[in-house]
Design brief:
166 residues, mainly alpha, Arp2/3 complex 21 kDa subunit ARPC3
Length: 166
């Protein structure tokens, strides 16, 4: 792996982490879904390494917990979904907004999966109790991706192309 690629992955992962820290004061609103979608469209499989950097930074800050186990599959799942749909949706960010919204709506259920081996009834209760928060997550994900997706996508495409020239 080239030094340039390694630095890019570290930078993308750090931006994921910083975006989460910056948005922590707003309940169920995050930029990670937007960034994972755009990163996947622009950088392809590198997104998985950036997600790993993000997850490790979260582990360093908050320590190990079942919530962290969820992060190991939830964010890569979004990247896999984007990779599967990118040929069909391309750069239509209103549609990506709908995908991000559905992901936000499903987030609580995906997050609860890690609790099933520990306590299935808690996992179910956690999911049902969190549905109103998932609705907020759905709406904010849709809005952020629909409105910020295309400008961010264009900026990152330009940065990637400039980096490819050197």
């Amino acid at each position: 792996m080239s030094a340039q690629k390694l630095i890019r992955i570290a930078f993308l992962g750090a931006i994921l982490y910083i975006s989460k820290v910056i948005m922590d004061f707003v309940p169920n609103t995050e930029l990670i879904s937007l960034l994972v979608i755009v990163y996947t469209l622009v950088f392809g499989r590198e997104v998985f390494s950036a997600i790993l950097v993000f997850n490790l930074l979260e582990l360093v800050q908050w320590g190990f917990g079942i919530w962290w186990v969820s992060y190991l599959y939830v964010w890569p799942l979004l990247a896999f979904i984007v990779m599967a749909l990118r040929g069909l949706i391309r750069d239509r960010f209103v549609i990506w907004g709908a995908v991000a919204g559905l992901f936000g709506l499903a987030f609580g259920s995906l997050f609860a999966i890690a609790w099933i081996p520990v306590d299935p009834s808690y996992a179910f209760t956690y999911w049902i109790g969190g549905l109103p928060w998932d609705a907020i997550h759905c709406a904010t994900n849709f809005a952020l991706v629909a409105f910020l997706g295309k400008p961010l996508y264009r900026i990152l495409l330009r940065i990637r192309k400039d980096g490819d020239r050197s």
